[in-house]
Fold:
Amino acid sequence: MLRRFELYALHPDAPVDCVRALESACRQCGQFIPEVLDSAVGTNRSVAPVQMVWEHAYASAEAYRRYMVHPYHAVVLDRFLLQDSPERIVVDDPLGAGLVGYSCDGPSYRMMSTGVRRLVLLRLEAQSSPEEEARLRDALERAPEDAPEMTVSVMGANTMGAAWFDGVTPMTGPPRWTHLWEQGFSDLDALESYRHGDSRTAEAERSGWTRAVGGIVKRSVEIFYELMPGTGGTQTSG
Amino acid sequence: MVHLVDTSEVRAENVDDYLELVRDVGVAVMTDAGATFVSCATTSREVGEAVHVQVVWAFDDHERWNEIRRNLVLDPRWYEYGARAATLRTGGTRRFYTPAPLSSL
Structure:
């Protein structure tokens, strides 16, 4: 599967009805493009300089390619997004993470239809070995073992950041954020409980990753958002 | 054939600058990416209303548009074109049109 996130920084003067239209377009995408799975929209609650997140997934790269050529994508979604569109309501992404995502064997990212999603964007040391990365992934994905507030924990290489055209082939150089760690929480209180808790991963995060899991995390930034009611959580189509 | 119709609302005093941008940058960026320039037209500047500038591009189908969009994303000039156009317009619409043969009705 391909798990994908689009992070939108909205123009400060974007009309509210246009913002609502973009939210709606993202939420309803799976009704028009059946290849779009688990489509949900979130409102940013972190200090990251974005306002809206659209999370979704595809069963395969082939499914992603059908999304890419679907008229709904060009006609409805891109209307609000493309650089030269008269209806553009977003601005260039200051986070360097407008599009991120990873490959996974199955929908291990799924959680209830409401709640809080947290993305920790990671930049790993360029010289880190596959074994070190595997150890980091294992440690992060096992985080819920001593942080039960965390109901979802998936880490993957940010392949979608460069392979945005067909889901496989890098079109641009390595993305600023080489990996992402996707987490799920029932609500903001659960997230705060984790962040201030004494789990190994929470302590590693608070330490700036300096001594944690091999010390291969060079930089990180977080974004967390509340899923809007009525979106997400379940597969919208097979 | 698909027609991409961009209609931008532009203040009368900015229309010439907008048309110049389309002519000098937009046409090159879009045609290099694979689109065909079809037309550019404006509403009247002499009736006291904001001017609408309509620019039309053509391409075979949405698969071709996907390739054009990829080429645009990889072209630094597209970002400049978009940013400058945004400063010159006050609003507008983007629509895709496909032929509706009246003879089949």
